[in-house]
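Narrative progress, year one. The postdoctoral researcher (J.K.) led the effort to move from monomer predictions toward full complexes, under supervision of the PI. The following entry was the first complex the group processed end to end, covering 1140 residues in total.
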Amino acid sequence: MTLASESIAQPVDAAKFKQFEPLIAKYNEAKWAQMKEFDAKFLELCRSKIPSDAVLDAEPIDARKFVTSAGLLSESEAQIVNEFSIKELLDKQLAGELSAEQITRAYIKSAIIAQLATNCVMQFLIPSALERAKELDLYLKENGKLFGPMHGVPISLKEQMGYKGQVTCASYVSLIDNVVKKSSVSIQIFDKLGAVFHARTSQPQAIMHLDTWNNIIGRTRNPCSTRLSPGGSSGGESAMVAMHGSAIGIGSDIGGSIRCPAAFTNVFGLKPTTKRLSSMNGISGGRGQESIPSTEGPIARSIQDLEYFMDVYLNQGKPWEYDPTSLVIPWRPAEVEEKIRIGVLFDDNLVTPHPAVKRALQQVVSQLGEQFEIVDLADSWFSQEEMLAIHNTTLSLYTIDGNRSQLELISPSGEPILPLTKHFLNFGQGKELSIYDNRKLNIFRDSTKLALLERFFSQSPTSKKLHFILSPTYPAPSEIPGNSLYWGYTSFWNLTDYPNVVFPTSYTHDPKLDSLPPTQLKQNEFEESVWSNYNPDAYVGGPVGLQLTGKRFDDERIVQAVKKITSVLK
Amino acid sequence: MTLASESIAQPVDAAKFKQFEPLIAKYNEAKWAQMKEFDAKFLELCRSKIPSDAVLDAEPIDARKFVTSAGLLSESEAQIVNEFSIKELLDKQLAGELSAEQITRAYIKSAIIAQLATNCVMQFLIPSALERAKELDLYLKENGKLFGPMHGVPISLKEQMGYKGQVTCASYVSLIDNVVKKSSVSIQIFDKLGAVFHARTSQPQAIMHLDTWNNIIGRTRNPCSTRLSPGGSSGGESAMVAMHGSAIGIGSDIGGSIRCPAAFTNVFGLKPTTKRLSSMNGISGGRGQESIPSTEGPIARSIQDLEYFMDVYLNQGKPWEYDPTSLVIPWRPAEVEEKIRIGVLFDDNLVTPHPAVKRALQQVVSQLGEQFEIVDLADSWFSQEEMLAIHNTTLSLYTIDGNRSQLELISPSGEPILPLTKHFLNFGQGKELSIYDNRKLNIFRDSTKLALLERFFSQSPTSKKLHFILSPTYPAPSEIPGNSLYWGYTSFWNLTDYPNVVFPTSYTHDPKLDSLPPTQLKQNEFEESVWSNYNPDAYVGGPVGLQLTGKRFDDERIVQAVKKITSVLK
């Protein structure tokens, strides 16, 4: 029995929650109204071709086909959302071959398909997106040039990002009518760069699941296999991007929330070194918490689009002009070594990865073959004992205020505490520690950060320095809803603030090849929680995305390395 | 009556403290032994010319004359320490006109004079400095090039910086025999760059006074007027640098600890944006505290030396290769505007500056005249009410762990709690707050940081953006020992993490011109504490240093602006 099969929790305060139910209903009706108003016939057609929620929830359906081959989009629409990179979209607008409105309409359609298939949308912004697209077309016509480097490019936004004049609730029911006055800095930047915003996507309750499930819209499905989870907390984004519902999306990551979703849905995700992108004017239950900072980052279908996003965001957007907590570090030209030295972490010494993950990693390593130097980290990685100390520190830091900040946002609505929220609130036993304790944990965190630098990324008499570390993103190839229990493969890099890119592989869980659990389990509670009920049939269609890590502020170099790796893998 | 005239506090635990007294005596004897061993005759000569401690403590003696004109140094020694910039020292070594040993010997002599006049040294490193200098001379001879960009340049070090194989106690008596295994990252860097380390300088108890007084060596005097304070907590450094006892010094600043000492002793000091320089492997009672981060920074006799220090530290030293918490931001070429727009803050709306400070600021502003655009911030600065909220937030954050981290270092020796330590421990009433409260204060801090950016450093419909803000460094022209009570003019910029350079003016307190307190005092406890006993005669010889602030990460631009300002003031 899995968490997912437990009945979803009851409201903590049923009477209070009852008062919010009409607001939730209204919130969700607005979505239907916008889809209908945009194109009622198209909506009808989609509903006829896309299975019901019940079927999607029960079957391992690859929902991406509804965009790529189900005939729901016209040929030209399909070409726009399936074939063109961001740069091509810009070139074609400049050449007069496509208009911003055509692009926007195509992406609105694919976003509607995404919504029907995966339930990834919190709020559509269809009317304003169309208006914006028309303005951009007019601008290009009148000025003979693009408005900016994201002219007419539809971007999807994790809903926790403040959006001026719109409800921004971050999936907290208590904030269901919280209309904000300021857009998040990233939205302000992309607005100035010419982007179009057509959809705001879902995040889980508390924004702290590696899954996407909340009390406002329910659960989001994985496009690769609809009965699976799209990951989280940016699972609305990963579903949207994987469904080709936007050209690129913005998520955020404090424990894996960009990288797990990217891996689970077979797309690219970057968790940059923190403070390079701005998170200002967003809602978060961890506001003011600085021990493990969160960061925004892109989720994309290609490493080129992801790189372009970072380039224009930093070099033309200059977040530091809006947000004084942002670092003044442009997106810098970067090179990688002729022969890249990659340390491979097959196992973090706490939780054994699933057979599919192990197989994918082995295959990738053998494909990289001669062109890369591969160093197996099995003997040099932190021991189980060290990793327990590190992971428990991470867990304690997430809940170190005794969850007061989170409960302050959750409690006022009386909403049910979902199973993975409960799981999270119980990290570090949910204990409130003292500021003194917090400092000691910060010091321990920094010693881990230093150990990483000295053991792996510095030349030493006994070992060559690594350029990058390749590892699983998550123990499983995607996950059963409600079952994303172990964060360690990603949260380790949040504690230490080393940047990573997750990239898709061509490997997918295969119940025939990947049926056997490890013969011997490690003796720790995390291993046990992951392996207690291994059911290889449940993971059908789950893709394996891998995680490449570099030194702090080596974001640019990691992107270059992933380009090189993925070109070899092709 | 001033705090300074109170008798120094009794040991908290006299029996315990008694056990440490022989260790303290031994620690201080080593200093005498090194001076004697270096040159007993020279020491004798110095003692004959420099007044006794009692006289120095009682009179407003300008001790700088002992280096510049008292005949204690030979002509060539005097030239080395009084006339040459760092770059000239390098050039002359390369040209064979000076050796590292000559330079080191001259600076050791001036450091000995500095010690006798101001009591600024915790520990000399004379034998190893001489040995190092000889090695450098040999290197140059054998290789025909300098070892590095600080070849043979004597640098003084705030003692809290770890020094491999030496006691590092940060003025905590409990650590008086704490021999450390690792040098601080900055020392490692300057070692690689070819510097010579000959002296480690004093800091106050808890490293949290704007003064320099501890239970190991007592109080440090101000070279400009020996009965005054050299500021703190890097007052050992400021005294040393102002006495020409080192070519340049390294201090640290969490509330004014580089800038007050620089202003009090008429030299330059930079508090960079945090995390640009590394503070790794140092001792601090605030370790693990992240709400108001501390930073290291240079104290120098010229802005050119200061700039050179930053350039080689960042561009050749690359602290991020040692310290993974350091930002990867090189020292960048920077330009300032043709006509610089400076907002002038004559008064922070909490504490009225002394007449001497006001006069200096007014004079400087009128000297800047046509070449700069001056904007008086009187009407646009934060109100008294806002400033109270901001300053009280700062004070609370300093002691937010209920001083547990500090007391853990102070208590084991039973050492007396000095009056300014008591003053500091009582910031925010010394109350231990919760992590939840800490987060709220962090959020408030960031809103202040943002308000600064939006109100002053951004273009708006109603105002032009400022390039820099010019303000007092401290309410008084230097300070009476034990009387540095109000930190607001500097700590404001620690809370918000905006970088500043302090530069000397030619203005000094004049009891005739500066005798009158303000006719009307502001109604708040800080104003009251500063003005309750104004005695204009006490400040004779106190110089006024001013503080120039720029946007976060505009460190390079501030340095350029200070160059321009000081060239106009000349």
